[in-house]
Amino acid sequence: MADTPTATAPNVSVEAPLWRALVGYRLLTTAYATGVFLYHHDTYGRPLVGVVYLAVLVCWTLATLRHVSSAERCTPVFLGCDFSLGVGGILLTPVADTTGAVNPSLPTIWVAGPVLALAIKHGWRWAAGASLVVGAANVLEEGGLTRDTVHNVLLVTVASIGIGYVVEVARASEHTLAEALKVEAATRERERLARDIHDNVLQVLAMVQRRGTEIGGGAAEIGRLAGEQEVALRSLVSTGPTAADAARDVAGSEYGSGAGAGGEVTRDLAELLAARAGTAVTFAGPGSPVAMPERAARMTDAAVAAALDNVRQHAGESASAWILLEDEPDAVLVTVRDDGPGVAAGRLAAAEREGRMGVSLSIVGRLHEVGGTAEVVSIPGQGTEVELRVPK
């Protein structure tokens, strides 16, 4: 029964491409570390140490690809083991390369993979700490600071901190967007409910108050209570939601279920508006059907009904109204005109400030929901004209 589509946060996280890239990085660097070892295997003093380590590295990498496919699967236990394997390979290098003839460590650039995983999972602070540990391991393996060691450590540190910072900013942006969409959804649902309340409940309460005052006696007390409830209800529907209200309203409302009409189903607006014609209402439109998306047609028809209700309420039962439907090339134009006394300048804005949301919600709000516009032109003594324009 909802009139508006659900506003939801995007389901695809900015982190997903980073995790996919990390999977590819681990595979490529594993192949690279294996290739470097095979190329220099005759140079190692204890090549068997390198063979055992790289066999473990290859098996570990292939067996844990699933763990680096998402943040949920990249558990702290896995990160600890992964990082330990990389740092352990660096410290094990002097045992395999007893002469120090081979420059790269056994895991080579594979060791940056665990650091990047920490950056994506926990942010730049963890990445910075892990980079410093890797750097200290490289210094111990080399026996001191060298130009290559400094370059490698800086490269890993800058890359991991940069990625970690970008991920943190992206997460904050996604959270802000989700909260904003919740507020927007709750606001639009509150406006929809306010329109329905205005079209039905508030008008009934106003009529009870008016008739009770006219009758007098016990009915006057009922009218007074109805008037108090009308004021309280107008205040409620004209109050915007807070962020906390938004989350609660969206979670419990029918609007949050995503129900709504799609653009594939069409409705003849001329047929809907023609049904509004009567003794005091004249309809004029094209001879052919005016097909519109069903939701847009229903919202436009409801806005016209609200305009006619305003004519009856403010211009009186004897006032006449005319509905003109025009099917233009780029839009559908509906004009509702009456011969009532008109509205004084500034009265509509004052009514909205007082909580009387008939025009702003029941007419302008409905057209805004379907991407249209509504304009009210009134000259005291010359009637009121409401122009509704819905783009195709």
From TrEMBL:
Presence of the UniProt keyword Transport in the record: no
Protein name per UniProt: histidine kinase
Domain (Histidine kinase/HSP90-like ATPase) ranges: 303-391
Record GO terms (molecular function): protein histidine kinase activity
Residues annotated as domain DUF5931: 11-178
EC number, UniProt record: 2.7.13.3
Biological process according to GO: phosphorelay signal transduction system
Reactions the enzyme catalyzes: ATP + protein L-histidine = ADP + protein N-phospho-L-histidine
Organism taxonomic ancestry: Bacteria, Bacillati, Actinomycetota, Actinomycetes, Kitasatosporales
Species of origin: Streptomyces tardus
Ranges that cross the membrane: 47-65
Family matches, as SUPFAM superfamilies: ATPase domain of HSP90 chaperone/DNA topoisomerase II/histidine kinase
Keywords from the UniProt entry: Kinase, Membrane, Transferase, Transmembrane, Transmembrane helix, Two-component regulatory system
InterPro entries: DUF5931, HATPase_C_sf, HATPase_dom, Sensor_HK_TwoCompSys, Sig_transdc_His_kin-like_C
